[in-house]
Amino acid sequence: MVPAFANIRVPDRLRFRSVAILLVAALGGVMLVGSARQAAAQKQSGRVVSDAKYTAPYDAFMKMNRLQEEFTKGQTAGEYWGFLESRLGNQAGRILVKRPAKGFGDDAFRGWLMFVRAYGDATGIGNCTACHTLPDFTDHEKHNIGTAKEPVDTPSLRDLGKKKSFFHDGSAKSLEQAITRHVDNGQIARDNKRAGVEIEVGHIALTEDEVRQVAAFLRSLESVDRAKFREHLVDVVVQPVELEFSE
User: Fold this and answer.
1) Are 118 and 77 within 8 A, CB to CB?
2) What phi and psi, each to the nearest 5 degrees, are found at residue 96?
3) What is the dihedral of CA 36, 238, 108, 57, to 10 degrees?
4) Quick one: DSSP state of residue 172?
5) Which residue from 167, 185, 200, 216 puts its CA 20 to 30 A from 45's CA?
6) 32: alpha, beta or left? (left if phi > 0; alpha if psi -120 to 50)
């Protein structure tokens, strides 16, 4: 039996009003979902900011990409680089890596790669985490790196922006000079011309341009206040990943 109201015609203006109400309700639902997601993201970023031990642009880069921020127990510099190389190699040529729009530019990103790169067939090898382990950028040990007659304490590389000289005797007047000294000592260690220099130093191989990029990375280790750190986390750009280095 057909309901008596089955053939009742609904005026066009009522149909349009009903459709409009449905559209508004749907859009409102989308906006509510979007607002909820935004609120959740803000809450999560708030926790990241408040819980952060360090607040440099580099630290924002590591957190936004969920990269391993510190060595595991017993992990070596070579093992850490092997893990990162595998992780980043899967993203080479893709657009999955992000970085802060300010404070951690392309040179800093390339410098970071070379800082942690512990081995390879070309230059672009800093092997720096052999002594400057993460996240403090020091292993708190003494090492013979060829800059003194005796082993010297390994300083942290964080917050170097105000330093005017480097090494125990202040003989390097810029980050670039300090890094170049390490490069020179690396060549000396490979040539066996200086006894006592640790073998890890012999892995260092950087071109002049790569020295400049590693210095740019070190400058990204300068701490900022937490409000600025939050900006680094949310104001991001895509970073191309290429794992090719100079021959």
Assistant:
1) yes
2) -100, -15
3) -10
4) B
5) 216
6) alpha
Per-residue tens of pLDDT for the chain, all 247 residues: 544 434 445 455 555 565 555 555 555 665 555 455 555 555 556 788 999 999 999 999 999 999 999 999 999 999 999 999 988 887 655 667 999 999 999 999 999 999 999 998 888 999 999 999 999 999 999 999 888 888 999 999 999 988 999 998 889 999 999 999 999 988 888 887 666 788 899 999 999 999 999 999 999 999 999 999 999 999 999 998 887 776 5
Please tell me the distance from the alpha carbon of residue 166 to that of residue 67, in angstroms, as a whole number.
29
What are 237's strand-pairing partners? Answer: 99
Cα 67 off chain centre by:
8
Sign of CA dihedral 162, 77, 246, 194: positive
**Alpha-helix residue ranges (DSSP H) falling in the chain:** 12-51, 57-64, 77-89, 106-116, 175-190, 208-219, 226-234
Query: How would you classify the pairing of strands 98-100 and 236-238?
Result: antiparallel
Give the largest CA-CA distance in the chain.
105
The answer to whether the CB of 112 falls within 8 A of the CB of 217 is yes
Chain center to CA of 100: 9
Residue type, 83: F
Question: Which of 131, 121, 142, 123 is CA-nearest to residue 80?
Answer: 131
How far is residue 162's CA from residue 223's CA, in Å, rounded to a whole number?
Answer: 12
